[in-house]
Specification:
mainly beta, 10% helix, globular
Length: 426
């Protein structure tokens, strides 16, 4: 691939598919031996100071904060945890921005930005530890290969190039998308993600997610796939990854080389350093939004701490953790692109039968369609600003997206997105 324009088109439209490729290895690999499985379990299940049995059967281990999986990474062996960032983004009042009223939406007094944690009913982890769901043999067996357990495996470079050449219209593409994005020198984002429990079809490999991508690369003509760094967070329904169930769960992710050799979901072989002892990544979200009823969600803030260069994540007003800057060098001094929206993977079936968001198209509006509201970006002065120049991309007919600009602090810049997948126009 040569030239800046083809590369930017690749990053903007295509990286989200490789970003959401399976968090497990290639299913064509040979099954793992018992010894390999035991080795993975020993590596992932760290010594703990306390264990809690969640009502759903999960075992939650309270692991010393310095024993979490991130410290298995060779570049973090001598890393000192920063519990708090040096700088927080500065909030501003909502400007009098142009109002489109595309969705004819209004504020819902029943909306909530809190996420209940199921395991809290059985206990709590002490300060100085973090909660980690214990990995089981069954978890590893669902991955088909222990070599890539917990990793996201993307298309080959040749396959990615062919998708670019065909403008992503290949019916065999396994990914559907509906996203909005902005380009430029950016230092973070804050947004509230509406949570749903979409149906993921007939194949455990299928998933549906709503998330934020923060992408860094060097914008010149010599870029290669390995030059792409991303950090990502949101919610997903992914049976193959989580006990084979269809619960909605929070997740985080990273890659330092365009999804080739590095990158993991959550805390499995990851570099995300968690500092919060109350929030369990991967815990099922027990209450999600209801059609024509309560709308629920979570507010995520991710930003580049100018003191340390680390990227911190705040969930509903609490610091969850951070991605160390030395693991994502192209993000050390800011991002090149930020994106919000949904992606689905159709698994081995190869048809867009998986729902995105609520399963409704954005034209259905509030209390029916999925949304991300009050979207803000962080500028060079570490100030949260309101973008009004969103660009969009979608697998039209299968999944759609509609941006909106409302002049109040509840909606602000927003997107409604989603769809049912396979239908007469898909």
């Amino acid at each position: 691939m040569t030239g800046i324009k083809p590369f930017i088109r690749f990053v903007v439209v295509l990286y989200m598919f490789t970003a959401t490729s399976l968090c497990y290895g290639d299913s064509s690999e040979l099954p793992s031996s018992q010894e390999e499985i035991e080795e993975v379990l020993k590596r992932l299940n760290k010594p703990h100071v306390k264990s809690i049995k969640s009502p759903n059967g999960d075992i939650i281990d309270c692991v010393h904060i310095y024993h979490q999986p991130a410290f298995d990474h060779p570049l973090l062996k001598n890393h000192t945890i920063k519990m708090e960032p040096d700088y927080y983004p500065t909030s501003i009042s909502v400007d009098d921005i142009k109002t489109s009223s595309m969705m004819n939406v209004s504020k819902d007094e029943h909306s909530s930005s809190s996420i209940s944690q199921l395991w809290h009913s059985s206990g709590a982890c002490p300060k100085g530890t973090i909660p980690i769901r214990r990995t089981t043999k069954e978890d590893v067996l669902r991955a088909n290969s222990v070599k890539n357990y917990g990793k996201k495996k993307g298309y080959s470079i040749h396959r990615r190039q062919s998708l670019i050449d065909t403008e992503l219209d290949d019916d065999n593409t396994r990914f559907g998308f509906a996203t909005a994005y902005v380009k430029g020198k950016l230092y973070g984002t804050k947004a509230t993600l509406n949570t749903w429990n979409p149906k993921t079809g007939l194949d455990n490999d299928q998933y549906s997610m709503s998330k934020i991508w923060i992408v860094g690369y060097m914008p010149d003509e010599n870029n290669a796939l390995e030059d792409i760094n991303t950090i990502e967070a949101g919610w997903q329904v992914y049976p193959a990854m989580y006990r084979g169930d269809t619960n909605t769960r929070l997740f985080v992710f990273w890659t330092g080389d365009g999804y080739q050799e590095t990158g993991c979901c959550d805390l499995d072989c990851a570099v995300f350093i968690q500092v919060n002892h109350k929030i369990l990544l991967t815990d099922p979200i027990s209450l999600t939004s209801e059609t024509d009823g309560y709308q629920r969600g979570c507010t995520i803030l991710i930003w580049n701490d100018k003191g340390s260069g680390n990227w911190y994540m705040d969930l509903n007003g609490e610091i969850l953790g951070y991605w160390p800057s030395n693991l994502v060098p192209h993000l050390r001094d800011g991002a090149t692109l930020i994106e919000w929206g949904g992606v689905v993977n159709t698994g081995s079936i190869g048809h867009y039968i998986t729902q995105m968001g609520s399963g409704e198209f954005p034209q259905q509006g509030y209390r029916k369609a999925s949304y991300i509201r009050n979207i803000q970006t962080v500028d060079a002065s570490n100030t949260l600003t309101i973008p009004t120049n969103l660009e969009t991309a979608s697998k039209k007919g299968c999944y759609e997206i509609s941006p909106g600009y409302e002049s109040d602090s509840y909606w602000g810049t927003n997107i409604f997105f989603g769809g049912p997948g396979r239908n007469t126009n898909c």
